[in-house]
Amino acid sequence: MDGTNHSMVSEFVLIGLTNSWVLQFFLFVFSSLFCLASMLGNSLIVLTVVSDSHLQSPMWFLLAHLSLIDMIDSCMVTPKMLADIFRKHKLISFGGCVSQIFFIHAVGATEMVLLLAMAFDRYIAICKPLHYLTIMNLRVCISIVVTSWMIGISHSFLQLAFVIKLPFCGPNKIDSFYCDLPRFIRLACTDTYRLQFLVTANSGFISLGAFFILIISYIVILISVRQHSSGGSAKALSTLSAHIAVVILFFGPCIFVYVWPFPTLPVDRYLALFDSVITPFLNPTIYTLRNKDMKVSMKRLWSQLMRSPNIS
Questions:
Q1: pLDDT tens string 27-37
Q2: Which of 29, 175, 229, 292 makes the best surface tag, with the fewest CB within 10 Å?
Q3: Taking the model in full, what pTM does it have?
């Protein structure tokens, strides 16, 4: 394709999740509650980590950034879905669709890299505790965050570089409640078989590879702890169980959408709903709110907020 190919489609029609009014009402209430809870929970975690000196460690620095990413994740798809859920014609502009795809892949890839970094952080903390603060210092943590965003944005730009010039001259119905890359590509007025394979290789196999790397790293940590301390394996398992749960929740829908050979099945739409609505809420719940140090810090922050009007 050359530079003379321009899109004749100015907007796309989103089919949505269901035409049943009862299910639409249920999804609206369900998604609204989870989105609100996710924003409040992740905001509280970021505020607590920033304001409490007892949480100024590399682990909490990375967890606070994960909460920040989940806040962005909650704003990418859910507000548009909630605004469209009762509309008969769910429309999104061509530029809006491309922007949504860009941010979904940029934030998703950034979170993927951050989860890998957090697995490395747990490996150092559990297997090399005496060198933990030397290896995982503030400079390294900032470098990890910056690198993860650079990789995420680069990945998203690379994805869109191959599809932005595709000719869209007729079909404009996307069988989903948001713009996802596989369905977007299939609407092009040209043969996109090779491009779909490239997208699968870039997103699907990378997600699958990162997932197995994380699982293997957790197994290595548990084996290492068991060899050095018979009583420490239970504590390490308790610590890593939260990480493993978040990894499965995050990577499961991604692997299914981009690797599963039958992407037109309705189940991937509900997996995408789970990933965009529930996962950002479960991440803070599993990672941080069940942690004793976080609970104590939140109580301390709440006490300070309650005392501040009296002081003034």
A1: 999 999 999 99
A2: 292
A3: 0.86
